[in-house]
Design brief:
It is built from 14 helices and 9 strands. By secondary structure, the chain is α/β, with parallel strands linked by helices. The longest helix is centred in the N-terminal third of the chain and has 20 residues. Bound molecules: alpha-D-galactopyranose. The site of alpha-D-galactopyranose (GLA) has 7 residues, from loops.
């Protein structure tokens, strides 16, 4: 080979190798979907500097893990705390990210006062509607044109397809969903609006969501996407069922988002277990306190890759894949359903090293 060609080839190899090193996940999947992460307080405040670096390099969408939930942002009637939510939105803007607000109406982490009167009874339908409207309008208006999409209603349907008996449902019946969407749309007509839930593979839940989406559409109420939370495990859900749901939601004409992706590497907890030896039970529930054994890690990576491949197969309708945290240390799974479990559910490990299955996509 001529010397000049050799030099050129070497330079090209070095350049493309370093370019590859610089590429984040968001670049690797740029033609497919946004790659998102949920931000915790330490990341939002810039205290977790290593986490922030990973976020900037690899993610082009963010969602608030906790700071926009009603108990945080609207702890008392008439009292809002926007401090952290403001910083969260500023972080997304400064880094040119697709910003998701989570979540406007949810039965859990709900501000204690929200559905009750002074005597501790449920408020009337009229009062709840007023409160919902005020809550949604205030928050969505504050971030108008800045937050690009909202999880308007979170976790409204249970597995058999019936409505969760939340205060919203108990007081307003099924209408609480269209009402919440109308309020959000009125406050920011350009914002995308989503329904979000877990266990979205389950047929009962799937059928009801398809019905709700069609109902909203037939009434001319904006809905842009359904969020399949994606809290998955080593033995659930079944891929075929998950894909069936994905297709059913997409079949209504709206987009699908994988909104809270993480996969526990630990055995599924049998909450009803009858245990006499509590220490033995605890140990069995926390089997890998010192690191994930290689065979389990390999299995975890293989299954995560299969999920990612499924998302890629449907990238025509999946517009965002968001992990529920950045690195394993961040994950709520370490404390649920039992405190102190050492879990390994996210895209980066505790040393902030990217998980092997993702490296496959760089090849
Ligand atoms: C649900 C919620 C999230 C989060 C997780 C667990 O999926 O949508 O906001 O609270 O539970 O932390």
């Amino acid at each position: 080979m001529k010397r000049s060609i050799l030099i050129a080839a070497t330079c090209f190899a070095v350049l493309s190798c370093s370019a590859q090193k610089e590429r984040g996940l968001k670049d690797v999947f740029a033609d497919d979907f946004y790659i998102g992460a949920a931000l915790n307080e330490w990341e939002i405040r810039g205290l977790d500097t290593a986490g922030v670096e990973i976020l900037k390099k690899h993610f082009n969408s963010i969602v608030a893990e906790n700071c926009m939930k009603s108990e945080e942002i609207h702890p008392e009637e008439g009292v809002y705390d926007f401090e952290l939510a403001d910083k969260f939105v500023e972080f997304g803007e400064a880094n040119d990210m697709f910003i998701i607000g989570h979540c406007l109406v949810w039965h859990s982490q709900l501000a204690k006062w929200f559905p009750y009167d002074d005597d501790g009874n449920y408020v009337t339908p009229e009062v709840l509607k007023e409160r919902m409207k005020e809550h949604i309008t205030t928050i969505v208006t504050r971030y108008k044109g800045r937050v690009h999409g909202w999880d308007v209603v979170n976790e409204a349907i249970v597995e058999d397809g019936s409505y969760r008996k939340s205060p919203f449902y108990e007081i307003l019946g099924e209408e609480f969903i269209p009402f919440a969407f109308e309020c959000a749309h009125a406050a920011d007509p350009d914002a995308e609006l989503y329904l979000n839930d877990y266990g979205m593979n389950v047929k009962g839940r799937r059928d009801t969501y398809v019905k709700i989406i069609k109902d909203l559409q037939s009434r001319g109420i904006r809905i842009d996407a359904i969020g399949m939370q994606g809290h998955v495990g080593m033995d659930y859900p079944d891929f075929t069922e998950f894909e069936e749901s994905l297709k059913a939601y997409a079949g209504t004409g709206i987009n699908v988002m994988i909104t809270e992706w993480d996969m526990s590497a630990l055995p599924t907890v049998n909450m009803g277990a009858n245990v006499s030896d509590i220490e033995a039970y605890r140990a069995s529930m926390n089997p890998y306190p010192d690191g994930l054994p290689e065979d389990v890690s390999a299995e975890w990576n293989e299954r995560m890759k299969a999920f990612m491949d499924l998302f890629l197969k449907h990238s025509d309708v999946i517009t965002r894949v968001t992990a529920w945290g950045v690195s394993d240390d961040d994950s709520w799974k370490n404390n649920w359903p039992m405190r102190g479990r050492m879990d390994y559910p996210l895209l980066f490990d505790r040393n902030l090293e990217m998980k092997p299955f993702l490296k496959e996509y760089y090849k």
